[in-house]
Amino acid sequence: MGRFVPLSIPNFEGNERKYVDDALDQGWVSTGGAYITELEEKLAEFLQVKKTAAVQSGTSALHLSLIVCGVQPGDMVIVPTLTFIAAVNPVRYQFAEPVFMDCDDSLCMDPQKLRRFCENECVTEDGQLKHKATGKTVKAIVVVHVFGNMADMEAIMDIAQEFHLKVIEDATEALGTQYTKGRYAGKFAGTIGDFGAYSFNGNKIITTGGGGAVTAKDPTEVEHLKYLSTQAKDDPHFYIHNEVGYNYRMTNLQAALGVAQMEELPEFIHRKQKNYGLYQQLLQEFSGGTLLSFREGTSSNQWFYSLKLDMEKLQGKNMRDVITTLQERGVQTRAIWGLIHEQLPYQDAIAYEMEKAPYYSSCILNIPSSTQITDDDIRFVVEQIKVVFKSGI
Which UniProt keywords apply (predicted)? Predict the structure, then answer.
């Protein structure tokens, strides 16, 4: 097999095998065990919050957040269209209605359009935001920090406060991203809004295989989230349940992997930032596209690198042609997601002032960003991209 540089793969350089073997030796492999508690404590310490709850996925973290913030059937939740569909599906789990919002040039939700929607399409009645055309209550905003790039949380939190909206931060791609300037200096992604969701999927900056975590501004709500994630058990002896619960708790085996990964997280962030810097240097004179930057006044985990391509230079070829040609040349890449408001389950939903999301969805190429990628690998990736563009595919 020839040379191949993958897009984003897990990195197990530390104590992963040691801790997992320890969990196996102890016999604690399911949704109880000391590693779950340790992971929650280490994550809370890193994020500088009081509590976190370890769950089975970022999706379950979002679902639990929607439940605890009071989203009911028939409510509306404002969501981005430029994101992975897992950020939106939990809205439908609650039989609520998503309202799709455009992105700005950061690829994150556009706060200007968010404000226009709240001001022009809605009215405030009895301390609740009501959608004029349908009379439905707009209950919350799901903000995604796309590819580790922090959304404009100052503007979004101002809007949320003014219009009585809960804010759920989807920080599934942004563990370790934080503000360095402004009102939220020192605050990490996922710790600014009312709730914050994290993912430890195999391609994320740290992984537990599957798995995720959730935190909240109010520590008592984290306890409620944890309670719901373990089938809402009120009496462990007689199995009394006073709420509908979920099988959303992380397993001890996953948490053992996560504890080891948390020990490596600062180094992984450092590598992501260093590797992005090298890409930036090598692509500076590339005429076929531009490497997108991250928000000023933040320190991003730089989880994914986005190359905005000049599609007009491809002589009628499309993004699929770019991806398949690079794959044949030993470089794995991917397109950004299909816009969610265009997906079959959501075509009947409100999509507000879509402009930039369709543009970016047509020209963004994600390039290899694993923490163990070498400088030589990065040079190889850039060389292949340049060859493909020079040939016009």
Answer: Aminotransferase, Pyridoxal phosphate, Transferase
